[in-house]
Structures are given as structure tokens and as C-alpha cells.
Amino acid sequence: MKLLKELTTCYGPSGNETHIRELIIKNIKEHVDEIQVDVLGNLIARKKGTGKKMMFAAHMDEIGLIVTYIDEKGFIRFSNIGGVSPQRSLYQRVMFENGITGIISYEQKHEDMQKLKLDHLYIDIGAKNKEEAERFVKIGDAACFKGEFICQMNRVISKALDNRIGCYLLIEAIKQIKDHTLDLYFVFTVQEEIGLRGAKTSAFTVYPDYAIAVDVTLTGDTPNAPTMAIEIGKGPAIKIKDAMVITHPIVRKMLEDTAKKHCIPYQYEVLEKGGTDVGAVHITKGGVPSGAISIPTRYVHSTGEVVDMQDVENSIKLITKIIS
Ligand code: CO
Ligand code: ZN
Questions:
Q1: Pick the CATH number of 2-62+159-323 from 3.40.50.150, 3.40.1160.10, 3.40.630.10, 3.60.20.10
Q2: 208 CA to middle of ligand 2, Å?
Q3: How far is the CA of 305 from the centre of ligand 2 (A)?
Q4: What is the pTM of this model?
Q5: Cβ atoms within 10 A of the Cβ of 297, count?
Q6: Which protein residues have a CB closer than 5 Å to ligand 2 (ion)?
Q7: Residue 108: per-residue pLDDT
Q8: Domain 64-145 sits in CATH 3.30.200.20
């Protein structure tokens, strides 16, 4: 749990993955044969085997904000990095790389909150004026959201479980896997939240025989949620389809057979909007048979995302069993 807390609270909006990458390297370097960081910043770790190449991908970036303008009074205007909701951003705390914290507020003459846009919001870092603000924050600086990490009733509430939970799964799998013949690549990708960019280059480099992405998915288990057959606590979700991929039948069968054989509960994911790394991986070069394991997560892209640790344990089991 200590590792998961460290991962989720680490700063790493898309394009600014240095800190989170270093943290992951520190935790896996004793357990892999090779580590490579590619041009875009993807972390590619290998556990050598004599068999076919299998790639696991989890994005390490998180959504965030980027500074566009600082006004005379020192209020900071911003644009989004990835899927940031104006409503979910209100009164949230954000953190810049240098540790400066800001609070997001909005132009208060605004009345219809449904029509609230990011343009109406600003970050207040407590500066007295523009000059003071500019001593700490400049145009182009990126911030991530802040949110306390809490575990209760075997459920975790935190920011950035999308997708530090995926990173956590791969780190735990890397530590646990002993015997394997597959040639294993664990790729911690950059810039997923702004269009699966790191997955594109890393999949081209590795060009695996099979690929599985690990990321979060939405749920339909809260009051008046959109209709979706996914609940937290009911096991890892095997992706069938999202907006960018249809899971390859070979990989789908691999996942189903492994889950059945080891009595791991699972559910099926059909995600109507959005996608994850595998959307880019499966159309690399001549194509890669690909699929995904998704962790059911409530309130994705908020500072209070919720996962069930039983799903997390079962996902680690699914990954380690599929390779052994
Ligand atoms: Co996301
Ligand atoms: Zn994600």
C-alpha cells in the first residue's frame, strides 16, 4: 500500500513524466534484465525469455493543467492536459513541479454551472500580484491535481489511480514472476492522456507477438450511472471493445482461459467512449494481437477515484498466471 500511495501522489502530468519514471525505475531495477528509456521518455523494462515476445503496457502520465496566462493580480489561467472536467476541477488543489500548490476557482458572475468551461476557471496560488506569481510559476508550467490517498473497507480513494494503479500492477507482477519462457517487456508509457503517443513509439520499437495494456475503466455501479455492466469488486475487466480497439480473439481467449483455470473472477468491458494504450499498440507495423485488463474505477479523472483492492489483487494474479 505504501508503494501505491507513493505512485499516486507522485507528480507526472503528460509530457512531464521524469519523477514518476524515476520512482518506477527505483522499484523495478533489481528485478529486470534490461531497462531502456526511449526518445519520448517511455520506460521499457525487459525480463528476458527464449519464447515469444509479450508486451505489457501501462501509462504513467496523468491528466493535468498547463499555464497559458498570468494576470495583473497574479491569477493563473490554464489549458487542459488530457480529459479535465471544469466541474470536477472546482476548488480542487493542484501542484506544480516545484511543489507550489494552487486552488482552482471560477469567475463568480458565472451562473449556469453546466456551461462552465475551463476558460472561466483560474488557479490562485496566493500571490499578491503578477510579479510575485511569476517568481514561482511561468507560462508553460504544468500542474497535476492533488488528492489525499485513503484506504478503507479495502477500497482506495485517490487521485491518479488512472493509471498509477496499472503501474502498480506491473511493478508487482515484475517482482513476483519467477519462471517464464516468454520474452517479457513491461512498458511504462508517456502521454497516454493526450492521445496514446508513447504507446505508439514503444510498440514500434518492441514490436511484440502479443500485447496487453493495463489501465482503468469506468463503472455503472453508482446512483444514476450510465448503463454499463461493470462494478468495482467484481474482478478485473477483460476489454472486449472501446472506441479504439476490438480485442484480438487470441488475446481474449488467453485472458479468459487463464482466469477460468485459476478461478479468478472477471467481467467484460465494452467501453463506448475513450480508449487506452492498446488502441495504438495493435495497429503498429503489420499489427499486434492485443487486449487489455481494465481495473474498474469510479469517478475517473477526478481527485477521488475509487478502486477495490480485491480487483487489484486479482489483476496481479491474472497477469502473473498468464505468463507462467
Ligand atoms: Co485517463
Ligand atoms: Zn488511463
A1: 3.40.630.10
A2: 21
A3: 12
A4: 0.97
A5: 25
A6: 162-163, 215
A7: 86
A8: no
